[in-house]
Amino acid sequence: MTEPLQLQADTTSPLAGLIAPSRIIVMLGSGGVGKTTTSIMTALMAAQMGRRVALLSIDPARRLAAALGIPLSDRLRPILMPPDVRLPGSVDAAILDQKAVFDAMVSKHAPSMETAERILAHPVYQAASTNLAGPLEYMALAKLEELANNPDYDLLVLDTPPDTQALDFLTRPNVLAGFMENRVITWLIRPFIAASHFGLSRLFSAGERMMGGIAKVTGISALQNMGEFLLLIQEVIQGFHKSGEHIVEMLHRESTAFTLVTAPTEAAVRSSRGIVEELDKSSYLLKAVIFNRCLPKPVIEQAQLLATQHPALAMLSDRANGELRLISNLREAINKKLPNVVYSSLDDDPQPIGNLKAILSLGARLQRH
Amino acid sequence: MVPELTMLEPSDLFSRKLLLVTGKGGIGKTLLTAALGQLAASQGKRVLLVEYVACDQLAPLFGGQLPGHTERTVAPRIDCVNIDPTENFREYVTKYLKQKRLYDTIFSHRVVKSFINTVPGLAELMLLGRLFYHCELQEARPYDLVILDAFASGHFLSLMTTPDAIRDTSIGGPLNKETERVRNFLQDASKCATVFVTIPEPLVVSETLDFLPLLREKSPSKVAALVVNRMPPDIMGLPMEGPATAYLRRAHTVAQEALATLKSGIADTKLPLWTLPELGFVPTPLPGDFAARFFSRHGGEP
Description:
The complex is a heterodimer of chains A (369) and B (302). With 369 residues, chain A is α/β, with parallel strands linked by helices. Chain A is 53% helix and 15% strand. In chain A, β6 (256-262), α13 (266-281) and β7 (286-294) form a beta-alpha-beta unit. Chain A starts with 15 loop residues before the first helix and ends with a strand. With 302 residues, chain B is an alpha/beta fold. At the A-B interface, α6, α9, α11, α13 and α14 of A face α4, α5, α6, α7 and α8 of B.
């Protein structure tokens, strides 16, 4: 059964009020709460309202890329809408993967094409960009900054990585630059600068003692590769540094809306409280909370009524009671500091959401909470 | 026809030193970690539960104090620790390498933080090193079993490929030797095993089926068990029709289809599979007999 598609914006939707005044919407939440789906939904709703949206997403599983009909790349491309769906606005999306963003950043900030190519071919770079966990959060912010002045878009939606350990990246987006500027790295690099002047025989003379120290710390004795690499990448990182302060300023603007996506489980709510605290510490403004996967009200009512009649209904009733308590606890905690946050919820549906049409109709099912 | 799968009891895993619990975010990895820990402790093992997150999730399940970076006992024979990357690095340098002065002169707290965050793989390597320490090197009050509530799938793969990536950078030297030692430990199936958690939802199941071959190919630690968590309850004998009963029936159908897809998808791997029930709502702290009841309802078929 297909539900009729609502192609005009629903101005009474709780999200409409969030989208209208915003230029940037940042979605935060712990893993598995439906953050990516909610981000796409928000982007589509904005397009219903006539906005030209750039959606930046991170999807390690690549399922989403398939659903949206776009490849994994840091280049924005129009999402593949079903033929019978026409929206007044538009959504271009980029599904960032680590290597694509790294590569683009290197190409953009390297002093020359030749340096860029040397970096891209360097063994340390290759290992780091493809195999290792890296600061994807920072990369996503760099992309956000790049897009901020692009006249093709009037709303940026950022879906943060599912595994984000902390919100550190929001407060110090120039962490990479901080690292380059501190003494450690200067000492690491210096011998290699010397080496390039005096030949490799002098490699370990200039900063030898310090190099020895670093070698003990990291256990690395032959730092040559790493040093070479750091030397090459230095300018790239300095380019990124200039962005850092600008990003922080952008994120503090009134037109930036932080949105918390959560689910009514103990674990998700515990993470959510942490996120709210972190945002507050950095004076970022939380504007909306979306509770995903809530049991529908009629389901709750019947389950509570018949809880004693069947173990499955008892389980459902337990879940309902727990959910209601968690939702009200979290709201109460947030309300103390932020009385103007908009709450909405989405009903849990055992049916999977696999395509854009389904996500679009999801928007219409959003309830004020 | 759904093929027969080899059964494995949860406690069959406890002969290992290290269990790595992974799977997509938000599907019950932490709860399974806690339950495995509780079960092992009830069989007399001394257990360390490890997490690596911004916000403590494991200790609250035992009603314990927030554990922070040092191991703390949260229940009889159960310790918890939430490893902080910065602290972990400091300990590595000051305690393990015995270079306190070096550390104090070179690194300030801020610098270490950016150092750890920036050098790709360093935090991961330090985490693996710490696990190795607890499993193999710790002399005072050693643990019988260490369980890591590991990262979600993609990040977990990064963690497990870190040793190989370090080798491929051809940095060489002592770091390579250390890394090799850790890698050999992870690879030893008698000492280390991965437990992969999934749920019976079509999208999650297809991600699981995509991801398992990647793990098999790239991770030194092999998957020893596949756990399907949150199997919806039996619907036999549900009373009158209505929204709740319809919801339960639909959830049941979707889950059964997803489970069948999963089973046929892993048929050639001989991977043991357990199912665990949807609990509705899990109150915290967990009751003392939580694991016993949770696992008593596991099975090859729900």
